[in-house]
Design brief:
The protein is an all-alpha fold. The protein has helices spanning about 120-125, 130-170, 175-185, 190-210, 210-220, 225-255, 260-290, 305-310, 320-325, 345, 350-355, 360-370, 380-385, 405-415. The chain is about 50% helix and about 0% strand.
């Protein structure tokens, strides 16, 4: 119904606008009991079994018991002739027009016309324009809500993929490929070779802190999981080695009598594969026990290290350090040769090594162990002292997981004397 329409576009009634039609768009456009267009069948005042119109005035809009005219009064309004209201309730009054000037209805005045442009209905009920606007707003809100929900789901999926799924899949690719080699005999050799590649990737990832660093920092918060992955995949690579060596060795034995040169070549390949697998043990030990270059080991904070580093409250000045420069010095040419106390990271210290040292020297020795791993010091005196050492590079807020068993034991021993 347009803004200037004078009747409902669904049922043709002049007593309500299209948006207020009691029949709805898809239902019948009149009451099935009395034929009125001004109410739905469910709201019919006459009921199923009663007369379909008022027995006093003949109106279909009210029951006989609700007739505004009464039993003895006129059966219609004396002002406008409507059967829907009594003369005393006529909306038109005595001197006004006896029907609505907009739509011609006798049941409401011109100012109350639901169809008129300036009718009071504009403040009492939503117009078709405002209803449409509200629907549009609800639609926009629904679309925005859907987009926000989709963005949240996408973020969660991407986060899980980058931080959980990809790290676990790539770091354990050797294990997965070895399982495939066990299950699919036809492609066993191919999967065994790929398992070798997966093992190499795992070591490269740990060395450079790729997905392993992401997995430790954002998910498990403990590098022990990387150690578990390494040991499990090492076993898988060993099994893949067996899958590769066994057929090569059998082939070498079969052709040993007919083609000795080729047999030796096959045996050499088998021995090389065994050597590669065997060498993984010391490589893994290096990565797990001496993780100086393993970036993923440096991201986790641990308050216990801060406590151990901050013990020994007196400040250390450079003169005191220089005066005691002869204590604990070594002349070796290894990677710790520029440090004052390299032996604290190379061997287990004994009480005799520490008994002659003062408190300041012991504190320097203990903190030097952490400095060698790139610990960023918090106390002013230690930060100042190690900043002057040419070998020191501060990279990590916590290096507890980088410490070797020798260093941990020496730290505890030094603290007792300190």
């Amino acid at each position: 119904m347009s803004l200037f329409s004078t009747e409902c576009s669904h049922c043709g009634s002049k007593e309500h606008a299209s948006v207020d039609c009691p029949h709805g768009i898809l239902s019948a456009n009149k009451c099935k009991y009395c034929g009125s267009v001004d109410h739905a069948s469910s709201d019919c005042p006459h009921g199923v079994f009663s007369s379909n119109k008022c027995k006093h005035c003949g109106s279909t809009e009210h029951a006989s018991s609700d007739c505004p005219h009464g039993l003895f009064s006129s059966n219609k309004c004396k002002h406008c002739g409507s059967t829907e209201h009594a003369s005393s309730e006529c909306p038109h009054s005595i001197f006004s027009a006896n029907k609505c000037k907009h739509c011609g209805s006798t049941n409401h005045s011109s100012t109350e016309c639901p169809h008129g442009f300036f009718g009071n209905n504009s403040t009492n009920r939503p117009s078709s324009t405002s209803t449409s606007s509200s629907s549009n707003n609800n639609g926009c809100a629904g679309i925005i809500g859907w987009l926000i929900g989709a963005a949240v789901v996408a973020f969660v999926v991407i986060w899980l993929a980058v931080n959980v799924v990809l790290p676990i899949a790539l770091l354990n690719s050797a294990l997965a490929l070895t399982i495939l080699a066990l299950a699919i005999k036809r492609f066993r050799t191919l999967f065994a070779i790929l398992a070798y590649v997966g093992g190499c990737y795992m070591l490269l990832d740990i060395t450079n802190g790729w997905f392993s660093l992401v997995f430790v920092k954002n998910v498990v918060k403990d590098p022990i999981w990387i150690s578990i992955f390494v040991y499990i995949n090492t076993i898988a690579v060993g099994l893949s080695t067996w899958f590769l060596v066994r057929p090569i060795w059998k082939q070498a034995k079969l052709i040993e009598s007919t083609d000795k040169g080729k047999s030796i070549l096959f045996m050499s390949i088998a021995i090389l594969l065994i050597a590669i697998a065997a060498s993984s043990a010391p490589i893994i030990y290096h990565f797990m026990e001496n993780p100086i270059k393993n970036n993923w080991m440096g991201g986790n904070s641990n308050s216990s290290d801060g406590n151990s580093l901050n013990q020994g409250g007196s400040s250390t000045n450079n003169n005191t350090v220089n005066n005691n420069n002869t204590v604990g010095e070594t002349s070796n040419n290894n990677s710790y040769s520029q440090c004052r106390y390299p032996q604290a990271s190379e061997r287990l210290l004994t009480p005799s090594d520490l008994s002659s040292m003062n408190k300041e020297d012991l504190r320097i020795m203990r903190n030097e162990i952490f400095a060698r791993h790139g610990y960023i010091f918090k106390t002013v005196d230690m930060k100042s002292y190690f900043a002057k050492q040419s070998w020191y590079r501060g990279n990590y807020n916590d290096v507890s997981s980088m410490l070797t068993s020798i260093e941990k034991s020496n730290i505890e021993l030094i603290k007792r004397y300190e």
